[in-house]
Amino acid sequence: MNLFDETVNAETRRQFFGRGAKGLGSAALASLLSRSDTLGAANSRPRVHPAVMPFPKAKRAIYLFMSGAPSQMDMYDYKPAMSEKFDTDLPDTVRMGQRLTTMTSGQSRFPIAPSMFNFKQHGQGGTWVSELLPHTAQVVDDMAVVKTVWTEAINHDPAITYIQTGRQIPGLPSLGSWLSYGLGSMNENLPTFVVLNATWTGRKEAQALFARLWGSGPLQSRHSGVMLRGSGDPVLYLTNPKGISRGLRRSMIDGVNAFNQRQFEKVGDAAIRDRITQYEMAFRMQASVPELTDLKNEPDHVHDLYGPDSRKPGTFAYNCLMARRLAERGVRFTQIFHRGWDQHNQLPKDLPNQCRDIDQPTRALITDLKQRGMLDDTLIVWGGEFGRTVYCQGKLTRTNYGRDHHPKCFTMWMAGGGIKGGVSHGLTDQFCYNIIKDPVHIRDINATILNQLGIDHQRLSVKFQGLDLRLTGVEHAVPIKEIIT
Predict the structure, then answer these.
(1) Residue 205 has pLDDT above 80, yes or no
(2) Which of 111, 235, 342, 475 has the most CB atoms less than 10 A away?
């Protein structure tokens, strides 16, 4: 087969029509290349996506994701009236026939389980915080607590997929991938989007996490999150095998890239170009990641701030310290997943352990960034995929209870990056079952995150299957203006 026939056979229909349109687009391309923001032009700014607005409040974000759904009424949404309603049935006028999971839909009754934990008001704003979070309570004046988040999803996998990607159906770009696509990188030696998966000490069984939760979907693969492992090489195959020097590795990559470049010139497949980019990033990470993950130079007072677990790779404390180091090095988006928040039973035993995992490190992260002058332009987000019921799942006693999934109201908070501190937004009813003031859909949460990073969520889109695909979808979504400075 000659070269022409081979190229035609390898070319897709879309590439064929794309090549045919090049002549029509040459004038537009010349115009774009003359602009000062052309990618790769000497002494010019990086390419700017049309959705990016001037003067963003935040340059980077750190998302603390509590996978499994933390119990809002045991942590942030104080409901003192429930103490008098112990073991009484949740009124039908409150439940209003709302959807239930199969785990409690067969129960003959829905007995109310008041929180066993004490609450106090903290900070100048008087934010209510449970005794389970004594360290976090010290930094509430830097936080905006949103008590009225809601979602349509009631089971874990669709719910976590929904809040991460904007739809319950898998396969779409995650929040971090959208940020990478819209804003690009601030450090060419590390990924734009990094994922850290923390160990936990609460309920041993936990919902699985899938790589698609930090995947790029139809966006280029270079926008996917890169997970740093908590043991062994932080990234698989980061270390060269014995007998392979860095110079030899460079020569190997140059050879592979030359083959890929020739193939790209023949068929024009963008995935080949991404492959070249990823090889180059992997080579640079062989030098940058060992320095990043070497905490020997962190002083003792920093480890004391984050707690003893900060010296144990893979813990939430270690990952919070790592998130600060990533932020310092220009990583755009870091997401820490902490599993084990699915307290269907034995909540009084398991929830305190979960809170102990995150409490001191969370305060430390906010404090550390603030001391370094980085909190103002670093957005921190905390939350899970939905909330939990005020009624008990299974047997209720004075010393034990569990809570089922509840999507109609739950709590999240944000700090830094242009967020008002000491604010409590929204109001739920006395049963913590329905929203009575200022509902916030998860689309609004994502719109707020994008807004703080200087992105118009309505304009950040990509053509996919004939649609303008967006993180916030086509339904109404607005940033939460009440918590924004």
Answers:
(1) yes
(2) 342
Residue 312 lies in a domain: yes
pLDDT at 12: 55
Q: Quote the percentage of the chain above a pLDDT of 90.
A: 75
3-class DSSP string for the chain: CCHHHHHHHHCCHHHHHHHHCHHHHHHHHHHHHCCCCCCCCCCCCCCCCCCECCCCCCCEEEEEEECCCCCHHHCCCCCHHHHHHCCCECCHHHHCCCCCCCCCCCCCCCEECCCCCCEEEECCCCEEEECCCCCHHHHHHHEEEEEEEECCCCCHHHHHHHHHHCCCCCCCCCHHHHHHHHHCCCCCCCCCEEEEEECCCCCCCCCCCCHHHHCCCCCCHHHCCEEECCCCCCCCCCCCCCCCCHHHHHHHHHHHHHHHHHHHHHHCCHHHHHHHHHHHHHHHHHHHHHHHHCCCCCCHHHHHHHCHHHHCCCCHHHHHHHHHHHHHCCCCEEEEEECCCCCCCCHHHHHHHHHHHHHHHHHHHHHHHHHCCCHHHEEEEEECCCEEEEEECCCCCCCCCCEEEECCCEEEEEECCCECCCEEECEECCCCCCEEECCEEHHHHHHHHHHHCCECCCCCCEEECCEEECCCCCCCCCCCHHHEC
The mean pLDDT of 146-167, rounded to a whole number, is 98
Residue labelled with tokens 């609460």: 202
Average pLDDT, the chain: 90
Amino acid identity for residue 232 in this structure:
G
310: left (phi over 0), alpha (psi -120 to 50) or beta: alpha
398: containing domain: 59-238+303-483
> Domain containing 102 — which CATH number?
3.40.720.10
Average pLDDT over residues 345-351: 97
> How many structural domains does the chain have?
1
Question: Can you give the pLDDT at residue 202?
Answer: 86
Task: Tell me how crowded residue 335 is: count the other CB atoms within 10 A of its CB.
Answer: 25
- What is the pLDDT, as a whole number, of residue 32? 36
Structural domain includes residue 332:
yes
Structure tokens at 228: 């740093």
Q: Nearest-CA neighbor of 447 among 425, 410, 469, 480?
A: 480
Sorted by sequence, the CB contacts under 8 Å of residue 70 that are 6+ apart come out as: 341, 351, 354, 383, 384, 388, 410, 411
Query: Does some domain include residue 354?
Result: yes
Instruction: Indicate whether 468 belongs to any domain.
Output: yes
